[in-house]
Amino acid sequence: MRFLRRGWQVLLLRITVVVGSLWMIFLVSQLDNDWTSARFLEYSWLEYADDDGSPEKEYNCPAILLGEREAVEQAKILTITKHFRKSIQIPDDYYINATQDCRAFKLSRKYVTFPLSKEEEDFPLAYSMVVHHKVQNFERVLRAIYAPQNIYCVHVDKKSEASVSSAISAIASCFPNVFLVSQAENVVYAGWPRVQADLNCMADLYNASTKWKYFINLCGQDFPLKTNLEMVRMLRTLRGGNSLESESMPPEKKWRVSYVHQIINGGIQTTKETKDPPPFNLPIMSGSAYIVVSRGYVRSVLKDHRIRALIEWSKDTYSPDEHLWATIQRVPGVPGSKWPNRKYDMSDVNAIARLVKWQWHEGSEDSMGAVYPECKGNHVRSVCVYGAGDLQWLLEQDHLFANKFDVDTDPIAIFCLEKYLRQKALADLEWLEIVPGLNKLF
């Protein structure tokens, strides 16, 4: 009996503690000026409002994200109206002037200046951002991915207009963890300087911090499809692995690495001189310029003598960014790499680094041969520049980022996507940590 009585006492005590704790939480939640309310208010103001150049009353983001045809068509018509296009333009001078007061700039543009969770704080990311124009595009991407625990290296093409360089430099100056690359390059399409730009940022990021876990490279027309928390959780599941396109080189591309190429008058030209075999008999793979790789992979790029030799060999190839990273991913001993056997090949559709719609892989929804549905925006060099009608499909995919977006072509696609991501990030906050001890009750 004494044992049973003691058991009931313990049970009653636990019930009392739980009920009392819940009652205290209820009381706290009723106080208008308490710390909890302040935290809720602090988060709520971070939601994107209608005064940031995207008037919600003129288009229906929730309906667009659900793929409702009428809403998508209305958005498409709106994007070609002169009044709307004028209303969403943000000149470079705005950023130069607005960043004179960095605190006001970050407040008005609603940057997240504190970690949204302990999980994210403990898993910082490193970004290389290679840009040459469209400052508004760049700033919106930065705002969408910015977190104080992450670190960002920005490479501005040396050929960029003065206003672009000044505006991006001004934006970077407002953040302690955003910096311009130490050595800028004259980037040439399909030439080595495009790779060198990322390599320069890789080295700067590696030397600037020892804390970051993964490296992600971006261009100014990328945009995230996931919140920072979602990215962290997806990257944790890689367990130190990398995610990037890496496939056997198709025959139609082998000329790229079989002949010497030269940069002449700002363009790349093929010569008749054949190249020597790659160093260490490395199998040259085909891939993408965009990667998601571990800190260990970056260390190998910077310090492994085999990789350094491969880099030197690649400098006179065509579009080296589309084979270098993919080849490094298959070099034995590189952290997170895969064995070069073709059974380990990974396509761009399966890698989470970047989602790109190539025109020749598009098709109607009932087409069995299509890789993805037809582009709802327009094409630039056979790549889909996403429109509002692509958003529903994009958000169903597993990729971290998608390319291309253009605020000048279809601003609503960006506006709706960034609002969706911000609302999701705020909704995913670890509310159990707001009231101390609440998480222990569940």
Characterize the structure shown.
α6 packs parallel to α10. The protein is built from 18 helices and 16 strands. The longest helix has 29 residues, at 2-30. α10 (162-172) links the parallel β2 and β3 (178-180). The protein has 442 residues and is α/β, with parallel strands linked by helices. The protein has helices at 2-30, 35-44, 61-65, 69-78, 82-87, 92-98, 102-108, 118-121, 135-145, 162-172, 192-208, 228-237, 255-258, 295-303, 305-314, 324-328, 391-394, 411-427, and strands at residues 125-131, 151-156, 178-180, 214-219, 222-224, 246-248, 259-264, 267-274, 285-287, 292-294, 355-356, 362-363, 372-373, 378-380, 383-385, 401-403. Among the domains are: 44-89 and 355-429, no CATH class; 246-328, no CATH class. The strands form six sheets. It has a five-stranded mixed β-sheet with strand order 3-2-1-4-10, with helices on both faces. Strands 5-16-11 form a three-stranded mixed β-sheet. A two-stranded antiparallel ribbon has the order 6-9.
